[in-house]
Amino acid sequence: MIEAIGNTPLIRLKHASEATGCEIYGKAEFMNPGGSVKDRAALAIIKDAFARGALKEGGTVVEGTAGNTGIGLTLVAQAMGCKAVIVVPETQSREKLDFLRMIGADLRLVPAKPYRDPGNYVHVSQRLAQEMGAFWANQFDNTANREGHRHSTAPEIWAQLDGKIDAFTCSCGTGGTLAGVALGLRDLAQKANVKAPEIVLADPEGSGLYGWVKDNDLSVQGSSITEGIGQSRITANLDGSAPDHAERISDSEALEEIFRLTQEEGLSVGGSSGINVASAIRTARRLGPGHHIVTILSDGGARYQSKLFNPEFLKSKNLPTPPWM
């Protein structure tokens, strides 16, 4: 199972490419064993913990997560002879919660609270790990997360495009994917003595990261139905990544891309993928025709049936519904 993580395909996105005159690609991270890009972070964090002696076979991993990292950590932990205790806000999609239970995670649900509140799921998981004497994964501030992407995701993208990449864009939760890929691509560009790709942070409404990139302002505006992305602080993983640009994407714009990918290209993806593709299209239009842009298809749509593909839920939020429903 461990060797099955990574080396995912890079898929040319037909509509996005044709609409912009660029070549836009999505890294198919939904094809990892746990079904998301977070498998990479989980593997990197656990391997690093083993290497440092912070975790041993038979030990327990504790983490606070919106769901996907918990899935990745549970599967990787079990493959390496450990157990996982996963703390999740109760507002996350039913599908992810059911999946965590199905694969044997010790699931602890907590009320959704902001990071500044001691009851926030991240703080609860830290206290729980201390009480249990277990290893706290700390995905937001454990830089093994971004190093995993720096040494796996970035080199894969570079090799798949023979170094012909003008921009990379993706959304941030922990910041591990964006920062790790950014650092890795810059390393590779420097070695090849070529211009480094532009790094674009894609951000949902209700997050402060767009303002951070644009004006060093982390204030939050609006809200989003997306899960696991958006942030109102600079994590250790994101610190020092220095994105070149940012795009703020609305839920409606993201949903249009999700529905188009499903109906026109046969790709079923989740909310962060919609934000990522919308950002890639905006980036392509800003840079002009002829550029090569890469983004992340973070996870599959099946984890969001009760929200993104539920007409009643979407109508209650005044959002567009899937045209085939």
From TrEMBL:
SUPFAM superfamilies: Tryptophan synthase beta subunit-like PLP-dependent enzymes (SSF53686). GO terms for molecular function: transferase activity, transferring alkyl or aryl (other than methyl) groups. InterPro entries: Cys_Synth/Cystath_Beta-Synth (IPR050214), P-phosphate_BS (IPR001216), TrpB-like_PALP (IPR001926), TrpB-like_PALP_sf (IPR036052). Residues 4-299 form the Tryptophan synthase beta chain-like PALP domain. GO terms for biological process: cysteine biosynthetic process from serine. Pfam families: PALP (PF00291). The keyword Nucleotide-binding does not apply. Keywords: Amino-acid biosynthesis, Pyridoxal phosphate, Transferase, Transit peptide. Pathway: Amino-acid biosynthesis. It comes from the Bacteria. The keyword Cell wall biogenesis/degradation does not apply. Its cofactor is pyridoxal 5'-phosphate. This is Cysteine synthase A. It comes from Aristophania vespae.
